[in-house]
Amino acid sequence: MFQTNDQTVAEPTAVGECKGLSRQGTAVRSFSVSRCAPMWTVKLERTSPLILVFLLAIAEVLFAAAPQTSHGQTEDALEEGIKLIAAGRYIESLASFNRFKQSAPQDSSPYFYSAMALNQAGRLTAAALELQEAVRLAPGKTEYLVLQASVLSQLKQNDNALAALATVEKQGSATQLEAAWLKLLAETYLRLWKTDDALRVLALLSERSPKDASVDFDRGKVYIATGKFGLAVEALKKSIQKEPARNPGAYFELGKVLYQNNELEASETALLNAVEQDQNNPEYLCKLGTVALAKGEVDAAIAHLQRAEQAASSFPEIYYSLGRAYQKKGNKPRAEEYLNRFQQATTDLRQSEDKNQTVDRNIARGELKLDEGNGTEARSLFEQAALADPNRWEPHGYLAEMFLDSGDLDRAYPHLAKMEAIAPDDVIGNYLMARYSFARKDFERARTYADRVELSRPANSELRGLLGSIYEALGKTQDAMREYEMAVRLAPDRADFQEALRRIRGSGGSR
């Protein structure tokens, strides 16, 4: 408790239901979903456009079947957001979903659709957080769990992804999914190396949609992953037979397998088709150049590889193949130039990977020490992680929260400031900054940060309790009472919220 404005105001709990923002005990823990795969190292695999079309169809059925209510504008906001997703305007859609959240804070739908939009925009960590809230509000909903598993698997949070899929399997609800969701489920199983499950889902899809070329394409990818190349070729050729004109991925995968089998002519034909259908794909161009080089077509190889050269820092093999091509052409200076570039690019990638692995290891060990109750060692490990990579959000988040919990505000602030610089819209970063500002008795600033969180987390009782404390400190009794009432409604078992509400009601104020 502390005094301000001649009132005794309850200081908000340090963690509480950020146990509502985090069900794992700390505000940061649930927001460290990317700790095993930082955002900048994840190769994004966005959700199929088929699912987006299906989502819009769901919305149309929902609105057609729903009884008329007094929240027409609210429903319009949800429908508007879904249509913006379908139009590819992902970030714009978030404002519509946030408007819906304000009027229906315990409805899971806007969190789910926000996650879909964020996933499509490549903001996987933010998508995972929205899905966490969607699943909390509507546990067991199959589509939510499938999308959650997909996002978590892309973030390399494989154990959590498998846990979500285990719930789907236990419910036996996968067979009731529409085709687009089954495709996403199969892709997720493959990403998690659950190849038998992927093939099982693809078999169900094949029964439902025997003319769907993408099912055979996905089956081919599973066979490649399991080393069954003969079956892979068969599946990929079936896919191409069903959809020869718009199927670059199948041509590319087929070309790779044929090259591996030393069937160079057939491989080149397949890869030429892939490049014809996706002309600027650096992976396709690089592989085509490699095959041309293997056939002795040096000039053609150089032409293909130079078209891909701008992506060579991410695909060093392009530099290597260009170096080999110029060696065969007898141009030793150019060959050495490209081979040196290859060596530098691979060194840079290796150093980046080593740094990320070091940071990931220290974060994981720090989390383990937190679970063991050893805060001192945990803090040391997080500090090492933050020093190794100052632009990683998670160690700063853990350190900021630990220092806030211990009351060491001076040491918390640099980490909070860094978190804000890295991710200014992050929910937990803004929540922790609101806590910090409240502890500094900068109540207007605390309200600013808390209001940002409330836009996307109106159903979080800890946040509403914090807002109640802020308004009470500002002397805004009616606003404080409203927030405490909401906190009690959302978390009826929280004695501190009930006490705060009794106290402010007993004050008899009407400001």
Description of the molecule:
With 511 residues, this protein is an all-alpha fold. Helices cover 72% and strands 1% of the residues. The chain contains 25 helices and two strands. A hairpin with a 2-residue loop joins strand 1 (2-4) and strand 2 (7-9). Helix 21 (427-439) runs antiparallel to helix 22 (443-456). Residues 1-25, 28-47 and 59-70 have low confidence and may be disordered.
Q: What is the succession of H and E elements? A: EEHHHHHHHHHHHHHHHHHHHHHHHHH
How does the helix and strand content classify structurally?
Answer: mainly alpha
Q: In angstroms, what separates the terminal alpha carbons?
A: 22 Å
Helical fraction equals over 70%
The mean pLDDT is: 86
Note the overall shape.
Answer: globular
Beta content:
under 5%
Number of DSSP strand runs: 2
Q: What does the oligomeric state look like here?
A: single chain
Largest sheet geometry: 2 strands, antiparallel
Number of separate helices: 25
Strand order of the largest sheet: 1-2
What is the CA-atom radius of gyration, in angstroms?
Answer: 27 Å
Low-confidence stretches: 1-25, 28-47, 59-70
Topology of this protein?
Elements: E1 2-4, E2 7-9, H1 49-65, H2 72-86, H3 90-103, H4 109-121, H5 124-137, H6 142-154, H7 158-171, H8 179-191, H9 195-208, H10 213-225, H11 229-242, H12 248-260, H13 264-277, H14 282-294, H15 298-308, H16 317-329, H17 332-371, H18 375-388, H19 393-406, H20 409-422, H21 427-439, H22 443-456, H23 461-473, H24 477-490, H25 495-507
Antiparallel strand pairs: 1-2
